[in-house]
Every structure is written in C-alpha cells, then in structure tokens.
Amino acid sequence: MTEATKTNNLAPEEITKKDVTKAYLRWHFANEIPHSFERYLAPSLLYAMMPILRKLYKDDETLKAAYKRQLLFFNTQLSWGGGVITGLMSSMEQQRAEEEYEQKEIMMQDDLMYNTKAGLMGALAGIGDAIDSGTVQYIFIAIAVPWAQEGSPLGALFPFVCFALYQVILGVFFAQQAFSMGRNATGLMQSTGVQTAIETLSVLGLFMMGILAGNYVKVASTLKFSLSGREFVVQEILDQIVPGILPLAVVMGVYWFYTKKGLKVTQALLWLTAILIVLAAVGIL
C-alpha cells in the first residue's frame, strides 16, 4: 500500500444530515441511562457522537482523543440543549478532523470546544425547562384533562405521547439547524428575538398553570352558620366576593412550602392531605 493510499484511508468522511439525526436520536433515548455523579450525562453525549467520530477520525489515537473530549462533564435539557449541542459538536468535530488531516494549524482547540459546550448547556437547559416543562406539557395536559375526567384512556395517553413526539421532533430540528449553522447557532440562541419568545412562552406557561389550578383544583367549604334566623353558606359568600379563593389558597400554600422547604413533593402531599383531613373533620371543608 502506497503512502498516498494510507493517507486517503485516514481522510475524514463527510457528515450528513442523516448522521446528525442518528446522533440526536441516540442521545435522546440514552439520555439518562448512563447518568453518573462524576460525568452526569457525558456518557450519553459520547454514545450519541460515536458514529460521527468514527467517520471523522480513522487513526486510533485521534479517535481516542475525540472520545475523551466528549466524555468531560456534561448536563443539559433533553431537546433544546441536547439538540443544539449535538449538532454543534458534530460541526465542530468535523472542522477539527479536517484541520488535523490537512495538517493545518488547529483552530478548533479542545478548550474552545468544551467551553462552547459548557457555556451553552446551562443556558439551553434553562430555556428548555421553561418552555417544555413549564409551558408545552401543561398545554397538552389541559387539553387531555377533560378526557381523563370522563374516564377515557386518552386522558392519560395524549399528553405522554404528544409531549414525547414533540421533544423528538424539536430535538432533531435543533440538531440539524445547529449543524448547518455551525458556531453561528450560538449567536442565534442568544438573539433578542429568541429571548423575547422565551419570555413570552414563560408567561404563557404561568397562565396555563393558573388555568389548570382554577379549573381542576376542587376545594369548597361546607361551613354554614345562622344569624338572626337566616342561614349563611360560607362557600356561596366566597363565590360572590372572590370566586376560586380556596383553590388559589391551596396552590399558593403548596408554592410557599416549596419556596421554604425546597421541591419536596412527597412531603408537600402528605402535609396537604393531613391539613385537608383535619379541616374536613371539623366541618370547615
């Protein structure tokens, strides 16, 4: 085998959109499986990137170096963070492989790649949590709650299936766009338009949670009293003055508990159940 043939065998292959889609889907379905305290989700990212890295680096040593590069501490949200960073790392690794193969000055340094990843993973996680967990899932739940109340299995299946499909489609879209744009994707995610959209959706999410609480948190008072021969029903008085005040009080009480004690869901449910049982026993609720 000639030297030229050996060199050609080490040439990086072209990364296609199909490769990027496959990388995101590997990340998506392996996201929490190898979760570890030391590296968090880095093994999932490496698993996603492995087919791409194998196409780019034909030499064992450079391939090992790329594996180590993608195995550093990593933690982000599934679709927004995972999609953008998977596509962006694919683009940056492709540039790094070409620089190494052509023996050019290495502009795509390890520190630059990791700092880009580290700078995005927290910001994108915040965006994804605010929009996906704080808004979109509640829209699907609000649509499905009436079906669940009627006893239809769709009430349970619809939010789960729709939210899962939404995240897969969104993640693939972000991965493709980030790969096509390369490092310019970072500027896009930090643009004024995107930030305005994020704030708008966050407000919408708060409205959706308020609507769900107002419609589906059922708390009513059974307290009655007589005065000058006339019976007064406390719940009717409350409905005339401040409708929905009791469900609001319950929701705000749980929120206050979370702000004081942290997100201890089980404790909150136990305390809420105990308080409601006592109030029901004495005839207030």
From TrEMBL:
Membrane topology: Multi-pass membrane protein
Organism superkingdom: Bacteria
Matching InterPro entries: GatZ_KbaZ_carbometab (IPR050303), PTS_IID_man (IPR004704)
Keywords from the named record: Cell membrane, Membrane, Phosphotransferase system, Sugar transport, Transmembrane, Transmembrane helix, Transport
Annotated Pfam families: EIID-AGA (PF03613)
Transmembrane domains' residue ranges: 118-148, 154-175, 196-217, 237-258, 265-284
UniProt subcellular location: Cell membrane
Name by which UniProt lists this protein: PTS system mannose/fructose/sorbose-specific IID component
Organism whose genome encodes this protein: Candidatus Enterococcus ferrettii
